[in-house]
Automatic annotation (TrEMBL):
Keywords: Cell membrane, Glycoprotein, Membrane, Transmembrane, Transmembrane helix. It is found in: Cell membrane; Membrane. Its main location: membrane. Belongs to the anoctamin family. It is a multi-pass membrane protein. It comes from Scleropages formosus (Asian bonytongue). This is Anoctamin.
Length: 854
């Protein structure tokens, strides 16, 4: 039988021209398409090998029990692509559902639901129709067992397993199906992933159930994609709740848990945004009250203070009151509210993580994921692990022989992996140092060439300053370096993770996630750590400056959202250009999906990474910018709908996958949360002027009562300009204010003192206060964090009770089912008369006295 023939006798084929091209069924109109493989003709010598692989692979698929149907290239929109459609009959579905222990319904859940009470009149505008929020009833579920078919609620075998479960089963088969002949046992020749990598097939994907902008004409088709687009993926639905149950039903739990986390994170950002906005408003209201800014702007104080040059040779003297405007502006973010907000964010991040654990636990229960991790570890080994691990040992849990990797090999691979990660992280730092060296060298070169314009800080007419030229060229080089490293990160991370040969898909994803995040952490945050803790902290003093320059431009979140939406749309528009020349009625469902973007292995990783990097910015450095949570909130409101639009309209339907949590990202978030307490304490202490002001206010103020008057003069030190070394002395052209003395921002002894230009006692008092503040703030926040974490259990008590109740009821229903089944067997064996009492039946159920009853 060829792959294009109908394998089921008695099914009459429908005229192909009369069947809707948007159909998700075989040509017989009965068997549903569960998966599609595509390939093209290749007339080269390598093409013959591909043809042979396809023949063997498809023959083995038929042996497993899958049914295949091929669409000829003459029927495709480009005239060269073949489509192999796959249908999974009931026997195959039942067999692999048993193997994978897929949970299926056996009774409607009759446990009363205790949902949180909400005020309906206020929540109604944000609610979606009940049929969208809960597309199917709530059932008691149990792992499928082929020997207990009548125990489960099977009304129709064709629709009992939803499409997401069906495509998950098919992919499990495809990932393990060999493409070698029986006489040639080659374990490496196995799985659809290898066939895609070597070009034997060009694509493998499950089908969307309809077009996204209109429902399917077939009444048997669910049109869930249309509902997702209508109620979820459109931007003007941004104020509506997300239909998480429908997302989970259509895309699987793994994608469902991502959108649940993203929605929860966005919701929690609301509270941080409100408090941050209040702190910013506090800064606005105290705008005119800071004495130090008044002194800087006062022509009699700041206007009379001549500041030393900020660099050697090419920089000139300047008046302190030239920084008047920036001084006022800095008070918006550097005030008492900043300290409060830093402490608040330390507590907020704990509340966010603890409440997410509770939300996640509730989803685990509602989505039947409570026992998933154990199933994942025991049953779903990666095909690559099974292929590469030649040794075998007994699994103590399943009592079956399984492949394993010796501990010596694991250690060696782990050491090589760790060394590679450290090398690439060092390479990132080295690239940054290279950009620094470039900026210094090019700035010096431009300055010598354009000496007459060297002191200008912007473009004047048609002239370009050294500052601008250096920044532009360095930015371009830096951008290229980031793009190249980002390109290499993914491949290096995948390579070293493959080398470690993780046992399960969950372990593989967690290891890959950790490696990629370490790379991106250094890439994104290195500049922020430099600016926060190093820039301007070790500059020395006039005549003995220390130079450290760096530039790292972070990506704009708004541009990121535009890029996320625009790039897939342009690719899809270009890929479907041939199809646009054909009538819509001839553009088949599989061709439409084939022209969409593939959802890659790292598809969700980049979605998580974008949000976790953002999470780091609003927690690690929030003391510097209290409005960061507000901007993140506005970005995320857009992000939810952009991601929804991408998944619904621009990507092929992903293979449904299970996940009981956000995986390694949870540990990463916990690590960032702990680090954020430390970084914010250091920012307030060493970057903000809060501690020096407090020390002056309480210890160094003039007069008997605390005051901030005179703070500016107190925070400046004097330098004798005649002591400038010759090679550092400012040029005469750079000296509009030539005086015998200049001042600079520091706490050092004046010239003529026996310890001139060394740090004064006030400096050490301020340093001690900063260290004390760090210790106190960290301990206070950590104590509150741990207390809050202890007070809030990870799993709500209601969920714990419902899990225990459901397990008890499931055991009771299974017991009753076995008893009734045994009664029926005994009744049939005794001519319709049951002759055993209850005790004998219970014993017979346990196969102890079955022979006596019969």
């Amino acid at each position: 039988m060829s792959s294009g023939e109908s394998p089921l006798p008695g099914l009459s084929e429908i005229d192909k021209q009369k069947q809707s091209k948007d159909s998700v069924y075989f040509r017989d109109g009965v068997r549903r398409i569960d998966f599609v493989l595509s390939y093209v003709d290749d007339q080269t010598k390598d093409g013959e090998k591909k043809l042979e692989r396809r023949k063997e692979f498809e023959a083995n698929l038929l042996k497993v029990g899958l049914q295949l149907e091929t669409e000829d290239k003459s029927e495709s929109d480009d005239g060269k692509t073949y489509f192999l459609k796959i249908h999974t009959p009931w026997e195959v579905l039942a067999t692999y559902a048993d193997v994978l222990k897929i949970k299926v319904p056996f009774k409607v859940n009759d446990i009363p639901s205790h949902q949180e009470m909400t005020v309906k009149c206020f929540s109604k505008p944000f609610r979606l129709p009940e049929t969208v929020m809960n597309p199917e009833p709530d059932y008691f579920t149990s792992p499928f067992d082929k020997n207990k078919i009548d125990f489960f609620l099977i009304d129709n075998k064709e629709t009992f397993f939803p499409p997401s479960t069906r495509n998950r089963i098919v992919y499990y088969i495809l990932a393990r199906c060999p493409y070698y002949k029986e006489e040639h046992k080659d374990k490496d020749k196995k799985g659809i992933k290898r066939l895609l990598n070597n070009g034997t097939y060009t694509a493998a994907f499950p089908l969307h159930d309809c077009r996204y902008w209109k429902p399917s004409k077939d009444s048997n088709c669910e049109s869930e994609r249309y509902n997702l687009y209508k109620y979820w993926a459109r931007f003007f639905r941004f104020y509506k709740e997300q239909p998480l149950n429908l997302i989970r039903k259509y895309y699987g739990e793994k994608i469902g848990i991502y959108f649940a986390w993203l929605g929860f994170y966005t919701e929690m950002l609301t509270y941080a945004a409100v408090v941050g906005l209040i702190c910013f408003i506090y800064g606005l209201f105290t705008y005119d009250e800071n004495v130090w800014s008044q002194e800087i702007c006062n022509p009699e104080i700041g206007g009379q203070i001549v500041m030393c040059p900020l660099c050697d040779k090419k920089c000139g003297y300047w008046k302190l009151n030239s920084t008047c405007e920036s001084s006022w502006q800095s008070n918006l973010f550097d005030n008492v509210g900043t300290v409060f907000f830093a402490i608040f964010m330390g507590i907020w991040v704990t509340l966010f993580l603890e409440f997410w654990k509770r939300r996640q636990a509730r989803l685990e229960y509602e989505w039947d994921l409570v026992d998933f991790e154990e199933e994942q570890q025991q049953l779903q080994l990666r095909p690559e692990y099974e292929t590469k691990c030649t040794g075998r040992r007994l699994n103590r849990i399943t009592q079956e022989m399984e492949p394993y990797l010796p501990i010596t090999s694991q250690c060696a691979r782990f050491c090589l992996s760790g060394t590679t990660v450290l090398f690439w992280m060092a390479l990132i730092i080295a690239s940054m140092i290279g950009v620094i060296a470039y900026r210094l060298a090019v700035y010096a070169a431009f300055s010598s060439i354009m000496k007459e314009n060297s002191t200008k800080l912007q473009v004047v007419g048609s002239l370009i300053t050294p500052q601008l030229a250096t920044s532009v060229t360095a930015s371009c080089i830096n951008f290229v370096i980031i793009m190249v490293l980002n390109f290499l990160y993914e491949r290096v991370a995948i390579w070293i993770t493959d080398m470690e040969i993780p046992k399960t898909h969950l372990e593989y994803e967690n290891k890959l996630t950790m490696k990629m995040f370490f790379f991106q952490f250094v890439n994104y945050y290195s500049s922020c750590f430099y600016v926060a803790f190093f820039k301007g902290k070790f500059v020395g003093y006039p005549g003995k400056y220390t130079y450290i320059v760096i530039y790292r431009k972070p990506r704009s979140p708004l541009w990121g959202n535009i890029q996320e939406a625009l790039v897939p749309w342009l690719w899809n528009w270009w890929g479907s250009r041939k199809a646009r020349n054909h009538p819509e009625s001839l553009y088949s469902r599989w061709e439409q999906d084939h022209d969409l973007q593939n959802f890659s292995q790292l598809g969700l990783f980049y979605e998580y990474l974008e949000m976790v990097i953002q999470f780091g910015f609003i927690t690690l450095f929030v003391a510097s910018f209290p409005l960061a949570p507000l901007l993140a909130l506005l970005n995320n409101i857009i992000e939810v709908r952009v991601d929804a639009w991408k998944f619904t309209t621009q990507f092929r339907r992903p293979v449904a996958a299970k996940a009981h949590s956000i995986g390694a990202w949870e540990e990463i978030l916990n690590g960032v949360a702990i680090l954020s307490v430390v970084t914010n304490a250091f920012i307030v202490a060493f970057t903000s002027d809060m501690i020096p002001r407090l020390v002056y206010y309480y210890a160094y103020h003039p007069g008997d009562s605390p005051t901030m008057e005179g703070y500016i003069n107190n925070s400046l030190s004097i330098y004798e300009i005649s002591q400038f070394p010759e090679h550092n002395r400012p040029d005469q052209s750079e000296n509009p204010y030539v005086q015998c003395k200049g001042v600079y921002r520091d706490y050092r002894y004046p010239p003529g003192h026996k310890r001139e230009y060394s740090h004064s006692m006030q400096f050490w008092h301020i340093l001690a206060a900063k260290l004390a503040f760090i210790i106190i703030m960290e301990h206070v926040v950590f104590v509150v964090k741990f207390f809050v974490a202890w007070m809030i259990p990870d799993v709500p008590s209601e969920v714990k009770a419902r899990i225990k109740r459901e397990r008890y009821l499931i055991q009771e229903y299974l017991h009753n089912y076995e008893v009734e089944k045994l009664k029926l067997q005994l009744s049939q064996s005794n001519g319709g008369h049951v002759q055993c009492d209850a005790a004998q039946i219970m014993a017979a159920e346990r196969h102890q006295v079955l022979s006596e009853c019969l």
